[in-house]
Amino acid sequence: MNRDFLPPKNDVVFRLLFGDKRNGDLLRDFLQSVLTLPADDFAEITIVDPHLLRKHPDKKLGILDLKAKTKSGKIIHIEIQLADFPQMRERIVFYDAGLITDQIDEGEEYGVIKRVITILIVDYVLISESPHYHNRFTLYDSASAVEFTDLIEIHTLELPKLPETADNYLWHWLRFLRAESKEDLDMVAQASPKLGKVVVKLLKLSKEERARMLYEAQVKQERDDRARMRGAREEGLAEGKAEGKTEGKSEGKSEKAIEIARKLLDMKLPIEQIVKATGLSCEAIENLCAENRNRRRPTRYES
Questions:
Q1: At how many degrees (to 10) do helices 169-177 and 24-34 cross?
Q2: What is the pTM (predicted TM-score) of this model?
Q3: Interior angle at CA 62, CA 59 and CA 66, nearest 5
Q4: 158 and 83 housed in the same domain
Q5: 161 is in which domain, residue-wise?
Q6: Buried-most residue among 66, 141, 163, 188 (CB within 10 A)?
Q7: What is the largest CA-CA distance in the chain?
Q8: Are 196 and 269 part of one and the same domain?
């Protein structure tokens, strides 16, 4: 590692910093720099599922996005993506729809549904149609300039679009996440007491053995996953050549992609990585996951 501190834009490091209830004031300050909500709503920010690791038999890292609730019950979902992810817009809408439907049980009224707010931080250009590094999306009619509802609200924060000079307070937070040197951190720390505190927390966290082990474990897992995907691709190409697949045999190509996807699912690879390896859609991979679950589920006649 070339730097003296863990990269704050890494999702494990971000989760360790902002998923710690002792750092609730720092999470609140970051959220206030992104969202326009009543000040009272930030008075109580509760972390949902504050555990970094999930209890899987294979001990792999679990999902590392961060979920929080405001005082009024709004659900805030924060996610970081460092690598370009195909169909990210569709994935976020699908995920948010699940956070909506999970709130209501059979027989309940729709009025119980609380707003779902996603903050998506990416280290690549996601919204090429806009020059802004911060965009807010809701269900909106551009012709009449009327917002249908704000029950789903999506904020995108694109680090590569960040200008060289500060234009608002959010800029300093994103500059912190993008920090590459101690000089970057020193500059950010001067912006406010909260940013000074998060820099101190990051430097302290970077010296903790557990934090470094979790970070290095994730880096190793990602490296291993890339190696598995390369192997799966090479295997698929080799088998495809052996079978003499030619242009026009799309059905055979699709079957081969599904076969590779099944193997990668058995390896417990994340869905987004399987999408990249096979070219299949997120929906197709989700359907394969469901098929796997159904095959493993015992019938009522089994003991």
A1: 120
A2: 0.73
A3: 150
A4: yes
A5: 11-207
A6: 188
A7: 67
A8: no
Asked if residue 4 is part of any domain, the answer here is no
Q: What is the mean pLDDT of the chain?
A: 81
Cα separation of 237 and 94, whole Å?
A: 31
**pLDDT tens for residues 239-274?**
545 554 444 445 555 777 788 888 777 766 777 778
DSSP one-letter code for 148: E
Residue 177 corresponds to which tokens in the numbers above?
């996440």
In whole angstroms, what is the distance from residue 155 CA to residue 106 CA?
A: 30
Span 155-200, pLDDT tens digits? 999 999 999 999 899 999 999 999 999 999 999 999 999 999 999 9
Closest CA relative to residue 61, chosen from 10, 124, 119: 10
Same structural domain, 195 and 234: no
> What is the C-alpha separation between 52 and 243, in angstroms, rounded?
45
Residue type, 197: K
Place of tokens 């965009």: 135
In this structure, are 237 and 158 located in the same domain?
no
